[in-house]
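Page header: ASSEMBLY MODEL / two components / 604 residues total.
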Amino acid sequence: MTTSIQAAPAHVALPRRHRSRTGALAMTVLGVLFLAVMIFPVYWMVNSSLQANAGAATTTWFPFQPTFEGYVVAFQQQIQNFLSSMVISLGTVVVTLLFATPAAYGLARFRMRGTRAFLLVLLITQMIPTIVIANALYTLFNDVNLLNTYWGLILADSAAQIPFSILLMRAFMESIPPSLVEAALVDGANNFRAFISIVIPISRNAIVTAALFTFLGAWGDFLIALTLTSTTAVRPITLGIYNYIGSNVTDWAPVMATAVLASLPAAVLLVVAQKYIAAGALGGAVK
Amino acid sequence: MSASVEAAVGKRAPTVAAGHPGRPRARLAATASRWLFIAPAVAYVAVFFGYPVVKNIVMSFQDYTTRTFFTGEAPWVGFANYAATFRSSLFTTTVVNTALFTIGSIVAQFLIGLGLALFFRRHFPLSGFLRGLLLLPWLLPLIASSAVWKWILDQDSGALNQLLGLFGTPPVPWLVSPDLALIAVIGVNIWLGIPFNTTILYSGLQSVPQELYEAAALDGAVGARAFRYITWPSIRSVVSVVIVLGVVYTLKVVDIILGLTGGGPANSTQTLATNAYHQSFVNFQFGQGAAVSNVLIVVSFVFAVVYISISRKAVDE
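Prediction written out in full:
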């Protein structure tokens, strides 16, 4: 009787050791199967981008005779859009961090009248559909000549990213021990100097995470670019893809090659910075 | 002088925060310096969220069209835009589509996400790697995902119909049939939402103390009973976060629908969000677009408020 009770927790606490190796292997096989289904569209994107004239019923399940014709067309037609996306996304990262980092620190450290209200406003902004913003910004940007400009898209994309970045970085900055900053203040630094020399270096990881998500958000933006541009003067790669699929597609290879190009930043960041990505995904939910 | 003020401000900063009276000027300067951190972001949010929301409300009462951009005139029309919106047969369609799209997406995303999270909790070789890879669909630009899905769902030579063809199924018109398009679009949106749901729910499961399961096992609660009495109550707050965020994000989805079907065929995939886009940026009826947008905002807020108050009460009890 006693022994069985004592044995029970040990069994529950260490189920892995008790499970057979074949059981674990079966789990891995099952996991790979789930992933294969989930990742299939990404595979299909790469696969079709490497096949000539994908679209006739000739697309095979594997690119047995890979060709880069699709990429040649994609480069010719989309390289300018790719560079535009780069300018817009990097610009958005700079603007967003400039506004969001100090605000995140201010909200994390200072308790002032109105800060709680501002936090609530930031949460509410996450619920406001982008189309609502676009609708009104179109008229505003029309009045101040920001339609069809890089600055217009950078400012509007930053608006979409600043609240999330503030919430993300604030959650981290709240965990900085006040004594660290107070020590600098005693040494005669003002709030601003303490922010630059202490808070920013300590918060490096949180800032990198915010920058990554801002970049991906701006890079993937479609609706803001669709609504706040009316000419081809400034056109990110997402609009390039939309123009392809908005009409009847006869050759999918260049379209898929463009989709691959547009997905590269996300894939690269997932490989290089997976820990930041996972942290950001969670940060988004703790709101 | 300014240096001494600065020093005073600096030293005082922590204590002032606690409400001690200091020298008035130094205190004022301290408060001002702190507001300087937040003020730029407040201004930004005011211009890019505050202004649009207010402007949208104003526009919804105006006859705001392309003409307005040339003449500068936007005649006041009262509730005419709302009346026209509610009266049109399209409105009922978009509301029903929005409801089906949101409920269908959220239920399936959540159930599959929870299943995968429970699956990945049992660590096995490669589980961490596979979990990381699962994030990929979530990170791709939505319009790139829409493009590849449009190709996969292509009636004549898409991959899905090729696969079904192996079993003798005739080509299915996924995106061109008014009866199927909404189902197809919901399916793609479910695919998009699974990574997010899995990741958040997995982190929720990780925070359930192992001791609880050990204690429950003593009472004979394992498997489904352990899930019901330990896991579910422990992750309930995470669940409400996932669902509220999911609904709010799903209500405003535009990219996937525009990319896959453009709201068609025959408006069978038109939602409130895509309809707002169409009114403003295709028909250039900005006043009507604003009216539809405002309906969308109200729905989002009502849902968020109702749900948050329900889950608060549940937690309090």
